Each structure stands twice: as C-alpha cells, then as structure tokens.
Amino acid sequence: MKVLHVHRIGGIGGSERHLLTLLPALAERGVDVSFLGLDDTSRAPDPFYKALAVPYERLPAPRDLDVRLALAVRRATRQADLVHTHLVHADVYGALGSRRLVSTKHNDDPFRAGAFRYVERALARRAAKIVAITSALARFQVERVGLPAEKVEVVHYGLDELPAPWGTNESDPVEADAQVLLAISRLEPQKGLDVAVRALPLIRASHPKAVLVVLGEGPQRAELSALARELEVPVHLLGRVPDVASWLRRAEILVHPARWEGFGLALLEAMLASKPVVATNVSSIPEIVSDGETGLLVAPDDPDALAAAVNRVLGAPGEYGERAFARARTEFSVEKMANRTLGIYETALGGTGLTV
What we know:
Elements: E1 2-9, H1 14-28, E2 32-39, H2 46-51, E3 56-60, H3 67-77, E4 82-86, H4 87-97, E5 101-105, H5 117-126, E6 127-132, H6 135-145, E7 152-154, E8 179-184, H7 193-206, E9 210-215, H8 221-231, E10 235-239, H9 244-250, E11 253-256, H10 265-272, E12 277-280, H11 285-288, E13 295-298, H12 303-315, H13 320-331, H14 334-348
Parallel strand pairs: 1-2, 1-4, 2-3, 4-5, 5-6, 6-7, 8-9, 8-11, 9-10, 11-12, 12-13
Helix pairs in contact: 1-14, 3-4, 7-8, 7-12, 10-13
C-alpha cells in the first residue's frame, strides 16, 4: 500500500507535529508512506523536513491558487494507491489527481461553515473517508459544514512523549522563582491569548510571582505586547523555541484560552509532562481535558473566570498533573492513532485488492 500525505508547510504547528508522529508509526506498520510538502516560502518550512523521518518531496507554494502547482501535485500523486490530505490547500490540490482520497480535518475554523462549505462538500464527494481529529470536530463537519456522516471517522491525535529538542534554548528574562503560566500557540485571535493577558492582574493579586510565558509566533505579537505594557504585567513572548519540553517541565500550569480549537496538541503535551491544564470549554477541549480531574475548564472570553481557575489550581494543585499523565497515556497513545488510521485506509481501499 503506497500512501502519500500532502500538507502545506510553513512551520511546525499542531497538524505538522501530528504528521511527524503519525507517518513513522504508519511506516513501522508496513505502509509504504511518503510525504508531499507544499512549501509556504514566506514562512519557515525547513525545520519540519529536518524532523521528518519518511521520504518526501517539496514543491514551492507561495500563493493560494497556482495552476502550475496543481499540475505538479497531480503528477506527484499518480503513483500513490491512496492520497491523504491535510488542511485546505492540500485538500484542494490533492483531490485533483488522486485515485483514492482520505482527508483529515484538523480544526473547526468558522470560515468552513460559511461560503467555503460548498467547496468542502465538493471535495468530500471525492474522498473515500474523512478523518476528524475529535468527536466535536466530526459534529461540526456534519452539522455545520454539511459533510456526509457516513464518510466521517474520528481519530484522536496520539502522543507518547514530549517533543524532542532541536537545539538549546537561549537565555530568557524569566526569573528563576517565577510561577510560570505557559501557553503554547500561535499569536492569533483564535487562541485567546489576549484573555490570558487580561487575566494576569487578577492572578498576580493572589500569586504575585505568576508570569505568562508564550511559545509561538503570529500576527498578534505587537498587540499582545502593547496590552501587557498597558496592564503592567509580565508577559514573555519567546517565539519558537528549540526545547519546548524544558518549558513544560518548568511551568506550573498550561493555559489555553482558545475561542475554538481543532484539538490543541499542546494540551496533550502538558498532560504528558504531568501539568494541570486551565483551558476554555469549547470545541474539542472537553474531550482532551477532563474538567475537575486533569484541569479546569472555563467559558471563553472571560478573564475573570480564567483567573479564578488559575488561582484555584495554583492554590491547590492536588493530583491534577498525575491524573493528566495517566489520561494521556491511556486515551491518546500513538498506537491507537496509527492502528485506527490504518483501519481507515483498509476500508477506503476495500475492493481494490491492495493490502499493507
């Protein structure tokens, strides 16, 4: 079985980290798996390929619409028994030449339920199976986008260990005795980091050594910095760092105030680091974080509620972290993810005579 995964690459976010785990796990199970990267040359695609452990081909994809890219993708997909696409660009280009298609939906971005839903429905007609990474996302795809329920299957992300470092972190301005509230996400409105900044004065009223450390880049950097200065709170926007695991170990809590979320791989990483999670009760997050057991969930866009939950955990951390670790290992393993994906491939190729 030759399976080609296709994804537009501009850095290493949640879906990219997912592929870095899934692809070698499929190869270990006998799948002839390879990767086709559509490189967003305005960003930073190279680190992804340095970490990729399966054969790959790269195509420049500087524009959203590109006829030459469409032709190149079509040529690249012809030799695969099955093409597995991820996110919008890969879905559109990968559908053009694939003989058998599987598409993974990674987020419930509201634009998908608008006019773009007609594109999604057209692409779904080409797909043998559609993978949703959570049950909440599956409901979104069926109820709001209008995809056929019989084609949609749920496969959670799986992770067995913290991300390996690709270098050494630079020195940072965070004081050694600070209580680190860690956020790992892109700096964009979806992630609700502005809510975390607004919650910080209330948190520091009870825990004056609390600081917010954010790992990630994005268009809200200047806005978040200005808000932190206005509120006179310590917010450290460290960008992409080579050793995320060291920050997870250093943190007291992972804070994830997203307004919507496909999965939130940072949640799972924090759980593997035995850290409590304070997050919003939206989208898929309740499937990952068990409220009151592995962390606390609050309403979105509510700095007061977020601050109260953080203060509660800082004041009485209890066994949140230990229970989080146990849940991550039992419910979200790489083995479960890979085996479930392999089963979907076998179903999608049913009747073709192709096997692993």
